[in-house]
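COURSE: Structural Biology Practicum
ASSIGNMENT: Worksheet 4, Part C
STUDENT ID: 0417
INSTRUCTIONS: Below are two proteins. For each, the amino acid sequence is given first, followed by its structure token string. Answer the questions at the end about the second protein only.

PROTEIN I
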Amino acid sequence: MVTTPRTPSPQAVHPVYVIGGGPGGLAVAAALRARGVRAVVLEKSDAVGASWRAHYDRLRLHTTRRLSALPGLKMPRSFGRWVARADVVRYLETYAEKHELEIVTGVEVHRVERSGADWVLHATGGRLLTGSAVVVATGYNHTPHLPEWPGLQEYGARLTHARAYRNPEPYAGQDVLVVGIGNTGAEIAADLAEGGAARVRLAVRTAPHIVRRTTLGWPAQRSGILVRRLPVVLVDRMGALLARLASPDLTAHGLPRPDKGLATRQREGAIPVQDVGLIDAVRAGKVEIVAAVEGFEDGGVLLADGSRITPDAVIAATGYRRALEPLLGHLDVLDGRGLPVAHGARSPREAPGLYFTGFTNPISGMLRELARDAERIARWIARTAAKRGAEQGGRGAEQGGRGVEQGGHGTDQGGRETDQGGRGVDQDV
């Protein structure tokens, strides 16, 4: 999909390339376009919002409609308070059309390199694309991750990653083990329990913080926004108090309260699990909590408590990798976990003009933070482009002035020659 761009800013010789056509990439492109900066979105799939198209059917935003819109377009009221996956896809399609974004699909960027003040992108088909800046928006959940469990290869096709899960229909009447109790694992387990699976077990290594999506009509997201900048110790205490008041103790069901505070866990990369049915399913015995998976052997699953179970199917909700190393690993802009050392409007010190969005997992809501980052990034890029253009214009004016001065010298010299010639004529007479 390619749409016609607005007339680009005269200062921008090369466009800004945005890698990734998800919410983060589209938001940055729209914010740049609103400031007269040409942005080209490069998306490796055949449509925008590819990751949202691949999510399971039941998924709804855990953030409210009003706090999940991208810059320049509200989400329709008809979507409801908790927007469904299919409606998110529709919204992203409408967003790209409304802002007339320039999007090129079917193009994957393999490597990004510095070239003077610009950037060169190595892309599909041997393309070499030169950009004045690059925004990496390939997403927090990019490449499915499976732990290196012993015996995994021999276990075979009965194990799939949560990325492949769509709905409980294929698992009707089956004994299913879900591995991992992040938001995805918790919701898939509840979905299976409600959708006809004969038995659902949820393997847990570290007990998470589980929060109600709303408490007396107040969404958990708003609490996350309010406490985001408070001291970690204070948020940990507030979270523990709220948990005792709003969430039942599931210790008797094998799910004790976590031993680390909510903010502490979030800094380690683990956000709270928003309850969309798991608590009731666990209390009713529809979802059984079991120990973490240690490996596979003779068609069975070995658990950390020494037990062995033989489910019909295993769904691994074991997270994703950012997979930025092939793209950017040579630039020294990633930390030990493979995450960017800078995000938002800040570029890494070693790579000015390179920006990242969507690589944090905030308790205040991913889409909200993507929208805020987009405005900041666009503002900074536009300011930098204007400054760069002014400097180039200044150098051009200076060179032009020198040309005029040199031309003046030539006229003066010509006058001297004419004067000398006149003297010669007078002498000849």
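PROTEIN II
(use this one for the questions)
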Amino acid sequence: MSQTKLKRQMKSRHLFMMSLGGIIGTGLFLGSGYAIGEAGPAGAILAYLVGGLLMYLAMVCLGELSVVMPVSGSFQAHATKFIGPATGFVIGWVYWLSWAMYVGLEFVAAGLLMKRWFPDVQTWIWCAIFIVLLFSINSLTTKAFAETEYWFAGIKVLTVILFIIIGLAAIFGVISMDSTPAPYVSNFFGDGIFPAGIVGVFISMMSVIYAFQGSEIMGVAAGETEEPEKNIPRAIRTIVFRILLFYVLAIFVLSAIVPWQEAGVLESPFVTVFDMVGIPYAADIMNFVILTAILSVGNTGLYACTRIMYSLSETGMAPKIFGKLNKRGVPAYALLVTLGFALLSLLTSYIAADTLFVVLLAVSGIGGTLTWLAIAAAQIGFRRQYIKNGGKVEDLKYKVPLYPFIPILCIAMCLLIFAVMAFDPTQRSSLYWGFGFIGLCYVYYYFMYTRKNITLPINTESGTNPAVGDEI
């Protein structure tokens, strides 16, 4: 172990595609049909627009913070400095737990997809192969990881673009579709604008928001990004609107071709549309794309977990050993522990499915929304401290527009999500278990740090604006 600090090896294209890859996944390829089935065509589009708005609000707040303080771990370090060390501790560990949990589930999902081509090979064998593959990728240099993720994400983006082009051509009769007349937009108005009512829109909105979570990965990578003051704002300007364009156009195509009542029960509406326009081996093509999407999410998840754990160790909130880097500049011990926990969480789905696994899943379910809320709260805290210490807003290289309206709206929308979960019986338990775990984290921090008067350092590995200072 020869290095002490992470290297800035990610380029603008890596940052952009990694953020895209964190969002375009099974939530679009498989979950889009559920959203349409719950809310109807117009309702699903509205749900994605609202989800995209919330993503935008969180991303611009994260952008201002990450340009001023571009450290690995990003929002965990920001929450520590601008909200409080206890909140930084909670956000870091909840986010790490959320991603580590999902990484374990992705291995199983990838193994199950391989059953289509190799039905006689047991799922655990494929799980083991993918574990070795992703561990190897993450053990390489940051540049090697970023390049791999760039091509993983590229496959997904290309698929969505082709789907939109082919789908639009089928909708307006440019290409034939099962010898049936072009549907145009008849499926949008057959049963009214909101056939399932406004309640259906709220229900689908939850799955939509979960699909968008992962965009904050851009902040996690800030400490390893070249010229963060240029590349982070550039990524934010392009990522939100392109994601919305991809998602909304894809939902429009699906809704126009597949009746909304059928969309919710299809395993993958993308396969259905490709089959209807006569693309050969449509199911195999989409199986490959979804496999790529799953491996991409698992790859990014391992990266996010190791950098968050590195950030926690830098501030004394995790053992120092997790902050040690190997000769390639990778937090190797953090990577090993993350992978080990991912496998243990996977094991709980078999031996403690109704107890421990439920709790882990509940914490994961609220982790992303809680992170977005903390990002907005930290941005407000930063701006207040910045001005108090003599900083001028016009001097910021990237600043949140319409301050303080945007961070306040972001916080309000996150709180609304939790309120909706409280009224939904299927998600209420996630709220109880999730916030119960968060409460335990605060109690643990109080007894282990606050009560012992332990002062923790702040992760400012790349320097901060002098107007911000280095004290908590």
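ANSWER KEY EXCERPT:
Q1: The first helix runs from residue 12 to 23.
Q2: The mean pLDDT is 80.
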